């Protein structure tokens, strides 16, 4: 990681995440409005597999997810369940709308450490098939939450 | 415009717009964090040139803008002045954070008409050097405001 590449080694935004109350209704609205195929939503993994940690504690929280490709960017719709998570907290506090922008990084532990050194706290992390994610509280500095995504080499 | 292409003829998101109170501070935070050059901000044009209309009436409103290229996506920072605008209204109501996602379209008048037929109201429009924009109230359907951008053929 060089200084020229910044703290994350990338500045490519790959995803925007939107919180919604009803993933089927919003998914259909996107599909119809943009003339895209309506993707099937799916549940995130259970805690035994996802190892979901919210504010440092394991959480049963899960969410329904649906993805649209919109140019080189992925739009993610997120309908959380009622267990504690950044998704549920943000939806309850701010209502529907943008939750995060995501970047694909390498070296999750190191990057989290670097960001914590910048006063950006780890909010939630977990595993998914083929990789892992971390939501970082970058709101004060960057005015939006960042999600780090790390995909395993195939 | 075919049905397959949806209402706008495109589904490529080209920009995310963020409202901020202090464009210089946030711009510097982005530049340092991501290792990008700190761009110079500039004022949007005055109303005689921009023909800014907010809720159907001419508005003196202007904003300081700064742009970062983050992959194929442009991140736009927006610090509005205190005249009536969607920027000022949204910043006062919701604080700093994401204001819109933008798409580049062709045929501004036709696209606005199509969207109004879908119950999506025109909130604000204006001209800039080389093109024009329109903010559409798509929150109810799409959970985020859309901005249409039309650039003149060069």
Q: What number of structural domains do the residues of chain A give? A: 1
Query: Biggest interface pair, residues each?
Result: A-B, 42 and 42 residues
The CATH topology annotation of chain A reads as 2,3-Dihydroxybiphenyl 1,2-Dioxygenase, domain 1
Q: State the separation between the terminal residues of chain A, measured CA to CA.
A: 22 Å
N-to-C SSE series of chain A? Answer: EHEHEEEEHEHEEHE
CATH superfamily of chain A: 2,3-Dihydroxybiphenyl 1,2-Dioxygenase, domain 1
* Oligomeric nature of the chains: homodimer
Strand order, biggest sheet of chain A? Answer: 2-5-6-1-7-10-9-8-3-4
Pfam family, one (chains A, B): Glyoxalase_4
InterPro entries (chains A, B): Glyas_Bleomycin-R_OHBP_Dase, MMCE/EMCE_epimerase, VOC_core
Organism (chains A, B): Paenibacillus paeoniae
GO molecular function, one term (chains A, B): metal ion binding
